[in-house]
Amino acid sequence: MEGSSKYLVKSDILMPTFGAYFPTGNDSLILSHFPYLRNMILKASQIHKSYGQLPILRGVDLSVEKGEIVSIVGASGAGKSTLLHIIGTLDKPDRGRLVINNVDIGELSQKKISLFRNEHIGFVFQFHHLLPEFTALENVCIPAFIRGQGRKQAEMRGMELLDRLGVKHRAEHKPSEMSGGEQQRVSVARALMNSPALLLADEPSGNLDSENAASLHQLFFELRESLKQTFIIVTHNEELASISDRTVHMRDGQIL
Ligand SMILES: Nc1ncnc2c1ncn2[C@@H]1O[C@H](COP(=O)(O)OP(=O)(O)OP(=O)(O)O)[C@@H](O)[C@H]1O
Ligand SMILES: [Mg+2]
């Protein structure tokens, strides 16, 4: 079993239930033997987080497959946003392991985490967080600019996304000139700009009337169909929770 510790780490990321020794360090070889592992996009294991003396997350385990739409529900203060921030690599757990797209986030430097986030994760928040001084198109293009993509190419994709989300006619408008539903659609387009593997949303429809909320939820399902996007959505919206593939309930920093 020479060199097995290295392989144990690798195979453990992919295959914690087997925890087996693989006589190769080659992930693609492992994947070719176990093709279903390709479907795992997120594996969070025993995530702990405290603020000061107060434990907020107390050993959260969550696995999500590619293309799944998972809702996280629970009372205010249960730790939903804290968990979403950790899954989104915006915050670090005190303990536990986070593997996204077969990458162990705990092994990355802070700089690599930022690059990883920019490339693989999109965020939609309750309050869209669009930059007020920029147009819809400029807002949508920002993640591509951060990634170093040229303006022309970014704008072409930005227009495509705005079109797909039904707000192309608002491309040159600033956020203050758009309705709440339109602004939220622009923020979804922005989240999709770099074709992230994982889209995280925290109360995305919390600020919308029921009609706009329903249409935004519909959009998530359409995007899953057309772009094979994976969604993890924190929501108090019962209708959204009921139509998602799976609902995860949180209470007092744990998944029930
Ligand atoms: N930066 C922080 N410092 C200290 N305590 C925090 C911090 N962030 C969150 N908390 C606390 O952690 C607990 C969980 O907060 P979190 O925002 O994750 O809850 P939530 O489930 O998203 O609630 P809500 O439904 O109200 O958004 C709360 O008691 C909150 O006060
Ligand atoms: Mg919250």
From TrEMBL:
Alphabetically ordered keywords of this record: ATP-binding, Lipoprotein, Nucleotide-binding, Translocase, Transport
Domain ABC transporter: 42-256
Keyword Translocase attributed: yes
Entries under CDD domains matching the protein: ABC_MJ0796_LolCDE_FtsE
Pfam families the record matches: ABC_tran (PF00005)
GO molecular function, one term: ATP binding
Keyword Lipoprotein in record: yes
Family the UniProt entry places it in: Belongs to the ABC transporter superfamily.
Name under which the protein is recorded: Lipoprotein-releasing system ATP-binding protein LolD
